[in-house]
Design brief:
The chain has six helices and five strands, in the order βαβαβαβαβαα. With 163 residues, it is α/β, with parallel strands linked by helices. The protein has a five-stranded parallel β-sheet, sandwiched between helices.
């Protein structure tokens, strides 16, 4: 029996913490879909649009067999149903992540029959978030090692374009 899972997120931009979870999850499932949330309400504050985020993620996971990159808007359970996926795989950095993620997991199970598996982020990445990386980069700090090189280049290019 083939088991498919989804790793959903905004990934604006994808971090080494995200990739840690994706790589580890890819080893546990026959098929893994990294699903980029395309949320029009957050489009104005996004550094990259959904298409750009997908391209960056593809560049980071092209060596992983069975990993696909896609996007979705609306409810995750509807995306899962359309892709024949029954498992959501989420990373947890800290206890503070758990409260929110547990509520979402319980709702996804209730309305869509989708189970959520939580993976703890590796300690060396537990402090990372896309928001923090953008804040540091905008402030002129180094983000080397917190995102893959292709993402670091894209972040610096985007900031240069913004002036």
């Amino acid at each position: 029996m083939s088991v498919a899972a989804v790793c959903p997120g905004s990934f604006d931009p994808i971090t080494m913490g995200h990739l840690d979870i994706v790589r580890r999850a890819a080893g546990e499932f026959d098929r893994l879909v990294v699903a980029v949330l395309d949320n029009p309400r957050k489009a104005a504050s996004a550094m990259f649009d959904a298409k750009e985020r997908m391209e960056l993620i593809r560049a980071c996971v092209d060596d992983l067999p069975g990993v696909e990159v896609d996007s979705f808007s609306g409810l995750l359970v509807d995306f899962c149903r359309s892709k024949d996926i029954s498992v959501v795989c989420k990373g947890l950095r800290a206890v503070s992540d758990f409260e929110y993620e547990l509520q979402m997991a319980q709702m996804n199970q209730r309305i869509g029959g989708v189970e959520t598996l939580f993976m703890s982020t590796s300690p060396e990445y537990s402090y990372l978030s896309s928001s923090l990386i953008k804040e540091v980069a905008r402030g002129g700090g180094t983000i080397e090692g917190t995102v893959p090189p292709v993402v670091e280049e894209a972040v610096h290019r985007r900031l240069a374009e913004a002036g």
